Amino acid sequence: MHRECEEKILAKIRPESEEKDQIFKIADDLVSAVDKSGIAKGMVAGSVARDTWVSGDRDLDIFMLFSPSLPREELEEKGLFLAREIALSFNGKIVEKYAEHPYINANIRGYDVDLVPCYAVSDASKIQSAVDRTPFHTRYMKEKIVSLSDDVLLLKQFSKSCGVYGSDQMTGGFAGYLCEILIAYYGGFFECINAASKWHPGIVIDIEKHQAKEFDDPLVVIDPVDPKRNVAASLSATRMYEFSEYARGYLKNPSCEFFRAKKREIFLRSEFSEKINERETIFYGISFDTPGVIPDVIVPQLKKSASSVTALLERNNFAINRSGYFMGNKKSLLLFELLYDTLPVIERRQGPPVWEEENSEKFISKHLGQTFSGPYIREGKYYVEIKRRHSTAESLFNSDDFKQSGLGKHVKKSILDEYQILKNSDCWTEEFSEFLYEFITKISPLSEILLDADKKR
Amino acid sequence: MHRECEEKILAKIRPESEEKDQIFKIADDLVSAVDKSGIAKGMVAGSVARDTWVSGDRDLDIFMLFSPSLPREELEEKGLFLAREIALSFNGKIVEKYAEHPYINANIRGYDVDLVPCYAVSDASKIQSAVDRTPFHTRYMKEKIVSLSDDVLLLKQFSKSCGVYGSDQMTGGFAGYLCEILIAYYGGFFECINAASKWHPGIVIDIEKHQAKEFDDPLVVIDPVDPKRNVAASLSATRMYEFSEYARGYLKNPSCEFFRAKKREIFLRSEFSEKINERETIFYGISFDTPGVIPDVIVPQLKKSASSVTALLERNNFAINRSGYFMGNKKSLLLFELLYDTLPVIERRQGPPVWEEENSEKFISKHLGQTFSGPYIREGKYYVEIKRRHSTAESLFNSDDFKQSGLGKHVKKSILDEYQILKNSDCWTEEFSEFLYEFITKISPLSEILLDADKKR
């Protein structure tokens, strides 16, 4: 039954020969251009090299392998120069980008091409930077996956539809290479889905049986070309188990819905306002200019900031339902859904234990006569009930306590420049609307499909 | 300097010879009456036997020692019969009371006399019930304390003034026997105060160096006649450290104030209401008939109930500043000071981990389409945001959740009969007023003295 649906999907996502010919042609041309330079050897990497790209994807990775004897600085200089020259000779629109070292991204004949300089090391254990590992991945996978490319395509499409495809920090999901390893390990799409539906903490996948390091990530997938690396390190527990439940749902009811791309919802300010009224909670947003650094640096900072501010709110007795964060092109948002935003004037504070004589004396003389209650003793420690520091969430968000609350480096800098405290429907902007929709209607991928099916009935 | 003040106090609290003669006379008469029965031997116990009662105390303990060969049932029967006969022959007003077994309490010539049957065992290790231990305490202490009775008097008065005298459950303080051991161990009142001012967790006092059991009570004082018993077992950490800070305060400034009985404050409903308004918190009281069982059974139940209901409130997202409990003659009270008493309609609930397949399916199908958000996955577990069970504290207090929340046995029975939910100033009754005053103006004994001194200046 599931084969039927999978064949239908494959017919849509498997690139036709025309698409293949086109992409191989431009790939060949670029590799030749690198070879012709005489200073580096060209190599196609990524899904194009393994014949595992989903029809319509227009990403192309060209690696330029330099001699390992070249000093790092020269590699960067010569590599960038060559990449730029080649891109220009193909009339590409050029952007310089940075991972561990700089590379060139160019739009060439409608393809999104990365031209990445790296070292042609003889052995994966001798790599000097993460990109040097990629040619080994390509060589390893090319062989392993040759008869399983349809299965990889299905898994990629399935993961995309589930919302868990992509190893960037915002997604925290499955990289293309990870999908390929899973298919190689389990032996096919259906076998992989079957296994994933039973995933639980402690799963280790070690295709080469050469693990040389312990990891406490939710899923451990040892890199076949590097025994000390977990390919699934950036996979979050949330995404891992969203995938697992989605797999379980598909096994129960193998419908094409599980491969369908999600439609983006338009979410109006008035709808957001209505939802807030229904929930009776109070939303606070902290909005500020998105720092001009790559997303994989900013997103972890946003995550850290949201969790620091949540802790700060809780320390100040404001109870939170949920928090979230979003990085837009222009503005970023930290979002907090509170159960209430006003508190009584009194606040209980803990003092030293009675047996610390000096601290106790200081504490008593600081507070004596200045309290609502206390200093009093409970279980050997002093307490006082004094005027609360922040009686409203607004006061807290306006305070130095907020600004010094462990925001990430770039996030803090941008917030110190300027930030807006937004309340309830004022949190809505067009840029934030999709994020707000997902925050409010938060639902697991399988539940969403089941709910849609219910509605159609 | 401190001797001066102590002499002044002793002059007030040391019984004069007239008071002594009177009490010894009646004690002798009662002992003779026991002896004359021919079936038991009489013995004076308690502070009268050790000459350590504070002038004006009118408590008298007469023990009736029966042969250990007597079966328990017969001891109870004959003991009660003899005690009642003696009390009647002294024209006493009789009340039958229960500790581990029954005894007679009688008002005889203005004295509060306990007539307690027990076994005259040959060795403290052979006691059959706790009261059998008392004659050993009396014999042991009589010798130890003979030259230190003034010191014991000072310590008792000091503890009373500090509010920590009495080993009943409501006080959780220092028993008279414990005061005597402390004086015997440290060698005097001043030495005891000096040591107590430095108390910290882990203090063990073992006058006979024969400890045969480990305790994790705040203070461990091994009974000189029973190596497996902690005499300070009923002393709470709060009382222990209130005493310790009070001792420290006295050493710094040895004033007679430290021996002065606290004056009881009148606290009007209007004053209570004003305090609540100042604090901006919300008070809820649960009032019900005090169960007709001895305080040492009820008080721990009230304590347990207050802490169970606090946990229930917190599980339901109501934040508490403080809770308390009070046992009056007619009514008892559980008191909760809340930071707010109304919550939004939504509530987040945790579900099973995704890898528990059956539970996950049940959870999804139970909640699908019935939520504000979810079912969604976070870190491998399901969550839903659904209609809150109790949006107001009032709803919670009216619910079965409250009635089934781990109230003590007798407390629960009385509450199931009938209870009132009182809010803010309605918590006030004359019976509760003193407790409410202490709850609101909660302050450590030393802080209170320092504050009074400040005011007088």
TrEMBL record, chains A, B:
An annotated Gene Ontology molecular function: tRNA binding
Keyword flag Chloroplast: no
Binding positions (CTP): S47, R50, H137, K156, Y165
InterPro entries, per the entry: CAA_C, CCA-adding_arc, CCA_tRNA_nucleotrans_2, NT_2-5OAS_ClassI-CCAase, NT_sf, NuclTrfase_I-like_C, Polymerase_NTP_transf_dom, tRNA_NucTransf2
Domain annotation tRNA nucleotidyltransferase substrate binding: ranges: 150-259
Limits of the CCA-adding enzyme C-terminal domain: 279-423
Family listed: Belongs to the tRNA nucleotidyltransferase/poly(A) polymerase family. Archaeal CCA-adding enzyme subfamily.
Subunit (UniProt): Homodimer.
Residues holding Mg(2+): D59, D61, D114
Domain Polymerase nucleotidyl transferase: 36-137
Protein name per the record: CCA-adding enzyme
Entry binding sites for ATP: S47, R50, H137, K156, Y165
EC number(s) reported in the record: 2.7.7.72
CDD domains xrefs: NT_2-5OAS_ClassI-CCAase (cd05400)
